Amino acid sequence: MRSLAEIQHFPSETKTPTTRKTYDMMTDVKNYEDPRFLNLDNFNEKKRIEAEYKRVNEGPIAEVNNAFEDTNDCPHIRPARMIPEPSAPFEAPTMPNDTCRAISVPDSDNYPRETWGKKAEFLLSVIGFAVDLGNVWRFPYICYRNGGGAFLLPYFIMLFFLGLPLFYMELSLGQFHQCGHMKIWKKICPIFYGVGYSICVILLLVSFYYNTIISWALFYLLASFNTHLPWSTCGNRWNTNSCIVLAPDMDHSLYTNMSKTSATEFFERYVLEIHKSNGLSDLGPIKSPIVGCLIAIMIIVYFSLWKGIKSSGKAVWVTATLPYVVLFILLVRGCTLPGAGGGIFFYLKPQWNRLLEFKVWVDAAVQICFSLGPGFGSLIALSSYNPRKNNCYRDSLVTSIINCFTSFIAGFVVFSVLGYMSHVTKRSIQEIAVAGPGLVFVVYPEAVASLPGSVFWAIIFFLMLITLGLDSTFGGLEAFLTGFTDEYQILRRHREFFVAGLIVFVFCMSLPTTTYGGQYVITLLDEHAASYSLLFVCFVELVAVHYCYGLTRFSKDVESMLGFQPNIYWKVCWAILCPVFVLVIFILSLYGYGGLKLGDYVFPKWVENIGWFVSFTSISCVPAYMVYISIVTACSSRPNWMALIGRDSTALKSDQNVVHMELKETRNGQPPLQPPIPIEL
Predict the structure, then answer these.
(1) Contact at 8 Å (CB) between 423 and 355?
(2) Residue 151: how many other CB atoms lie within 10 Å
(3) 502 near 477, Cβ under 8 Å?
(4) Which residue, 56, 25, 61, 27, is CA-closest to 40?
(5) Do residues 426 and 247 lie in contact, with contact meaning Cβ atoms separated by under 8 Å?
(6) pLDDT tens digits, residue range 472-528?
(7) Per-residue CA distances from 274 to 598, 658, 661 (Å)
(8) What distances in angstroms separate CA 568 from CA 339, 555, 576, one per listed residue?
(9) pLDDT at 650 over 80
(10) Of 104, 73, 92, 114, nearest to 30 (Cα)?
(11) Which residues pair with 104 in a beta bridge?
């Protein structure tokens, strides 16, 4: 095997013209942390340079690695494995008029990190993750319940002073440190490493029920491929004597408080069969049609994630764009329906006196937090595949505004149809409007069934729901996968099997939600899986990044990527406003807990205790790891307590102990002495 000197003095005549450029770059860029190597957008080009390096050495890379030794000779270079000096003395090669300057960049792994094929794939993935089913069934209801158009004022205030700063912070963290939500805490503040595990637990708990809701939409989609919609009539085997059909020519005298619409009975007595369950103590058997739909959803998710962002980046071209096409079609159709104007007026009519109610502001803050999705780790994971010079500031503004705009437009789609239903049934919108799954699986299907061409409208509507749900599933599970594959390289090498194992595990844990009493399980998880723990995670992130790692250091990290520091607006939001808002919302959410209800059913106390245990499962990861790492540090021979909170003097001096080489002209025109050159493979 050639020594480093022989490689560097390899005769240029032996290089073919086709490999000369690659070889010159390979010998020039000796550290894979060099910005010229990291900023290569083409992943295949990176792999080609590595392969050329191996060819020149003419031997297994393992032999070179065995000869490496750790060194700290250069304070501006993190410990790297070095090639020993050859027997014949030689001067370390230098580039004239150049010197090394250390700037703050993240620690890279021993492999070129995969990057997005196109910038649009990243934007679509982030938009698809943020825009989910909640934009359709939660925001419109929350808006009209809290003052209509007046609610938009606290909503946008919370967007600019809470949601957007959190969104920008997470995109910046992932892009700068080039790793997922687990490994990043080793670089920022090791004592908060438990936050990574907390996020993983949250992601798993949400996936246990979220995919089942998507399978309901798939069930409806398949049922729509018929000559008439099955929920448009009574007289089916699942209907009762109390069933009525809402239609323009209906006899309104038949409608009583005991009556149930055909769409309601289809959802409750055919799709769910919840009437056969008495609660969590009697879930009943698994429903095979729902399980079949869940299997289909899991297969789609697997083949969208098994190759990482290579596969998911292609899938979002369909799953992230199709909902907007369908939403526009439904908007146009809804606004042309009789009575649509009354529904839209009801949606936007401002009730300014409601702004004096504290609950309205809390609802606005909660809606922003859960709509944009900070705290799930997905924003960190998705942005970690960006080049470090990507403009994440612009990305955060664009994607956040698109997400909120989508919620606003979805309100027009929903309330135009509610206005039509109010016009047809002669009932007030307050009686018709409901929040949650009932809006998209009962109310909207009722309206669709009464339209000409109802089959077509039903197909595109449920297709939109499926794609909205799949995008969020992609983002959540990709965050989980990125966290573990960054931390454990064996999982990265066998990603296909890891993804398969995760999908099988999620499917098995989702089976209780496919039983007759599955909606009771979904209600429990929806309330306790992420509602409280996600706010806790966001608060810990803000404290760890801006008070332990340091707001100044974080601002310099952003400057090294974008060329400018965040202005005073962002710094005040990160350091003061966001932590205060999140903490207040967390406390008020706990204080305002009113138990669990599903329709007229009130969950017993023991079920609520299970719910709090579910919430505590994810929250407890943070203090549990703090106790563990504190004990380990106390038992070590040289405990370094400041390093646990990211304030170690060495880390501060070298700005988190991670730097890369950047060439700079010296003042006197003479190159300085160079330290041994690290080569990482």
Answers:
(1) no
(2) 25
(3) yes
(4) 25
(5) no
(6) 999 999 999 999 999 888 998 899 999 999 999 999 999 999 999 999 999 999 989
(7) 11, 56, 63
(8) 48, 11, 12
(9) no
(10) 92
(11) 659
Q: How do 260-261 and 243-244 pair as beta strands?
A: parallel
Q: How confident is the model at residue 93 (pLDDT cuts 50, 70, 90)?
A: very low
Residue type, 10: F
d(CA 231, CA 226): 11
How far is CA 421 from each of CA 321, 363, 439, rounded to the nearest angstrom?
Answer: 29, 27, 12
**What does the block give as tokens for 541?**
């992130």
pLDDT at 422: 85
Report DSSP letters for 288-326, one per residue.
Answer: HHHHHHHHHHHHHHHHHHTTTHHHHHHHHHHHTTHHHHH
Q: Are 372 and 455 in contact (CB under 8 A)?
A: no
pLDDT band at 106 (very low <50, low <70, confident <90, very high): very low
Three-state SS for 586-614 is HHHHHHCCCCCEECCEECCHHHHHHHHHH
Contact 518, 283 (CB under 8 A): yes
* Alpha carbon distance 242, 255 (integer Å): 9
Q: Which residue type is seen at 324?
A: Y
pLDDT single digits (tens) 231-285? 988 888 999 888 888 766 666 556 666 678 888 899 999 999 999 998 888 899 9
Whether the predicted model's global pTM rises above the 0.85 cut? no
**453 three-state secondary structure:** coil
Judge residue 149's burial from the number of C-beta atoms within 10 Å of its C-beta, 0-12 exposed, 13-18 middle, 19 or more buried: middle
Domains of the chain: 4-104 (no CATH), 119-625 (1.20.1740)
- Residue 80, strand partner residues: 71
- Number of other CB atoms surrounding residue 272 within 10 Å: 24
Burial class from Cβ neighbours inside 10 Å (0-12, 13-18, 19+) for residue 260 reads middle
Q: What number of CA atoms fall less than 13 Å from residue 611's CA on the CB side?
A: 25
Cβ proximity of 432 and 421 under 8 Å: yes
Taking the C-alpha atoms of residue 435 and residue 527, their distance in angstroms, rounded to an integer, is 14
Report yes or no: 268 and 275 within 8 Å, Cβ to Cβ. yes
| φ, ψ (nearest 5 deg) of residue 588 | -70, -30
> pLDDT class for 665, splitting at 50, 70, 90?
very low
Smallest CA-to-CA distance from 246 within 238, 255, 237 is with 255
From the list 227, 134, 220, 167, the residue with the least C-alpha distance to 453 is 227
Alpha-carbon span 226 to 462, nearest angstrom: 14
| Mean per-residue pLDDT, 391-401 | 93
User: What is the C-alpha separation between 557 and 574, in angstroms, rounded?
Assistant: 15
Count how many residues are written for the chain: 681
- The 3-state secondary structure of 499-558, one letter per residue: HHHHHHHHHHHHHHHHECCHHHHHHHHHHHCCHHHHHHHHHHHHHHHHHHHHHHHHHHHH
| Range in 85-94, 184-193, 429-438 with the lowest mean pLDDT | 85-94
The residue with tokens 């612009």 is 394
Angle formed at CA 30 by CA 8 and CA 25, multiple of 5 degrees: 75
pLDDT higher than 70, residue 33: no
Identify the residue whose tokens are 């010079």: 389
